[in-house]
Amino acid sequence: MNLRMLHAWSLLLAIAWIPCASALGGDRHGETVPASVRSVEFLGMAAPVTPEQRAAAYTEAKAKVTYRNGKTGTFDLTYDVLHYNRTTIGGVTAGMIYDVHGNPLYDVNGNPHISESPDANSLIEVPGSQGKRGEERKDHDGKQLYLVTHYEYDWLDTAGKDQYALQPMTMNLATLEQHGKTGDLVTVALRNVDMSGVGGLWIPCAGSLSPWNTHLGSEEYEPDARCQVEPSCASGAIGLDSMNRYLDPSGATRPAKVYDYGLVPEVTVDRHGNTSVVKHRTLGRISREIVQMMPDRSTAYQGDDGTYNVLTMFVADEPADLSSGTLYAAKWSQTSDNTTPGGEATLAWYRLGHATNAGIGAMVEGGIRFDDIFEVSAVADPANGFRTVKAGHNKGLVEYLKLKPGMDNAAAFLETRRYAAYVGATTEFEKFEGVTVNAADRKVYLAMTRMRDGMEDKPGDPANHIRIPRLLAGAVYEMDLAPGQKDTDGRAIGSKYVGTAMRSLVLGEDITKDAAGNTAAVEKIANPDNLKFSEKMRTLFIGEDSSTAHINNFLWAYNVDTKKLSRILSIPAGAESTGLQAIDDLNGFAYVLSNYQHAGDFSSNIDSALKEQLTPLIDKSQAAIGYLGGIPGLR
Fold first, then answer.
1. Which residues contact 336 (CB under 8 A, 6 or more apart)?
2. Structure pTM?
3. What is the mean pLDDT of the chain?
4. Which of 2, 73, 128, 201 has its CA 20 to 30 A from that of 264?
5. HSE-up of 286 (CA within 13 Å, CB side)?
6. pLDDT tens digits, residue range 211-269?
7. What is the rounded (10 degree) CA torsion for 246, 268, 416, 429?
8. Strands (E), 537-621
């Protein structure tokens, strides 16, 4: 039996594996449906061994479902590809990169740039959608399925040259159809999401589906505005060449503004499949990995990737509206000793400021620059009001800054990480990436891809809040949430979802390099990145982005009740696990969306003989947008 037949069979079992109607959960629209689910246990798979396994995206894992009527069922998982980055439907290629006019951008060989880095997915059900001939759809209660996918960067052009951050990025919308009996999802149309109204898209990383059914994207490694006014700036920051190429392909002008990037793109899909995009400034400018909304539809937590980074919280003035609100930054007050892996801390929140998109946008349109906000000294000069900060970008350099009069809000929303350090918040987190929420337990989960540098005990740093042992394999943390909290100035925080404490939950383990080149234990997580939580499965899904620790990256399922960790997907060597979205019940079926990007970008630790075996087996130009199927709908 082939995988697709097995997938169809297992999904049919999800609907009809119990023959007696009295054993089922009831009747919906005259159809027999399964009993409601009590629990889901993932039965994990072994790590890949053969070169063929290491070169493939595959699963051998299972899902064991226990129903409330006492029955159980075990289902084989499958990894199904919706489309690839190079898939073309209706003249649209999924990962192709375009300029502001919608024209493809070409490499030195005259071939169009096609990104190999599909990152975030948002599967969106749009009510009252129109069919292909304009008639209202009647299947699935008149809802159409759309998938928004944004691409992080172009890895290699057809000349083999690394294009990271050298090209503007792309986002597209796939129209999907769901097979009524098997649950199989199929891509039937592709179109580009027009980013011209927001100045293009800058290095988008992870993303999330908002509670009000929009795609919340990200822009990582925000351009360093100080480097735009100081040509000798040594932060290693990325320039604006890619966005200038997007806005003016002729190269005649350099129109991109540094403060227009590092923001939050929000994409809305209407009933006709048209998209609209707005970029939010109110959540600040950071190396944003993701925005994760809380159940109140107002509070958000954000990942901040890189070195010497910050944990921020945003509270919107109105639910489901990110155009105005208040931004906060956390201070870590360690409660564990310096030898506790991962460490534990209580959190306090500094209020950075309140703003609107329009207000901050007016500053940017008015031409504000870094040197309008901060005065810089070459040496420590506290006597004259300069404060010493170490905050972000690629190197975490020490800076001596003095805020200029009246520039508090400009600093808070345009130089968020620097200002957070300036006022006393913690800017020592290391590659702080994924964020997701467990609403039932009032927990937020946060991924630290690795713990080193600012997270270690560094008495010589300007601040030394975090003091934990180095762990290059990284960890997932959990953060407690509570209402009735106040900021460091004693003002009430208008949210019931304020972080009060955090601690490590799932730890990786560093090892001496093994025969394949792994430097982290293969039976544990390494370099966690994407996170998504399923409320009904009580499961935290953890996708890896290990450039050195694991030769093959994995997708893991961690049950927060049993603490069981199960490997459920292996992806090609060198690839990163991206695009996570957990869908508990979509017309009677459950899914875990999961992509892989930049396959064949091998770890520098890989065994040379293994690398030689794998190289001809992996197509570096191919990346997949897909999902794990085989899980019954969780009612």
1. 343, 344, 345, 468, 503
2. 0.93
3. 92
4. 128
5. 37
6. 999 999 999 999 999 988 887 776 556 889 999 999 999 999 989 999 999 999 999 99
7. -100
8. 539-544, 554-559, 565-570, 576-586, 589-597
